[in-house]
Amino acid sequence: SRTALAKIDAMTPKPGGQPGEQLGRRSRIDSLSNPLVKRLRLLREKRHRRAEGLFLAEGLRIVTEAREVGVLPRWLFLTDAAEGHRLAADMVAAVLASGGEVVSTSAAVLAKLSGKDNPQTVVGIYEEPRTALASIDRARAPLWLVAERLRDPGNLGTMLRTGDAVGAGGLILIDECTDPYGVEAVRATMGAIFTQTLVQATWDEFLPWLRAGPGQLVATALTDDALDYQAARYASPCFILIGNESQGLPADYAAAADIRVKIPMLGKADSLNAAVAAAVMAYAVLSQRRHPGAA
Fold this sequence. Notes:
Blueprint: H1 2-11, E1 25-29, H2 35-41, H3 46-52, E2 54-58, H4 60-68, E3 75-79, H5 80-83, H6 86-97, E4 101-105, H7 107-114, E5 122-127, E6 143-148, H8 153-166, E7 170-174, H9 183-189, H10 192-195, E8 197-201, H11 203-211, E9 216-220, E10 227-228, E11 238-242, H12 251-255, E12 259-262, H13 274-290
Parallel strand pairs: 1-4, 3-4, 6-7, 6-11, 7-8, 9-11, 9-12, 10-12
Antiparallel strand pairs: 2-5, 3-5
């Protein structure tokens, strides 16, 4: 309950410089019944992530990539096996310097936190960024990905990785999508959760915002007027709109786009996986920008 969370919160130290709290703290926790472990294991559930404004990322690679872009966890949990790794040592030093807490622990505690039988040796607990549409500088990048009612956390993670690969500004999630800060989704991003801007909005919020400034909305749709994706001309900034995995885009969403495009299917399959379609489209836009006279 929210009351129980508040009670546990009062019992556990956290960085922030408030009276009575310790900065740059090191500790050791081996008990599965420790109040901090009990509190943070609840982050596996969406409602508790929302209530706390925190999420979990596991793996030395992911937390190191986060550090490289200036994002550090409030808590860093690591096993004795990780302690001797140079990247882990660098991570520990950075977290302590930032006022975070470094917790040496056991594999059993990390399994409790992550919900995995064979957990990684490092887990970071991060503050969930809350980015509003109005705060986006759309001119910062020539390409943005937009996903509507995306359900699969693996697809979401892959889209963020694709966005990072093509230099996109970020991913805008429309309507009810899977939680991007769930453990599976964060794991699937391979660190891109920290390098890409992530926004959650409704369609009724997104479309007026888009039309209030520059931006070409390109919908992937199997409509009669859809262009071959390689024949279309893409403007900057380009917003690629990908629909729900099983149902695609609603007709009125597709109709609101500046252009509709389709990817040819030459076999028996009638569609691509949503994340694959996003990657194909993203590289088509990137290719046209790199070779403007080729089409």
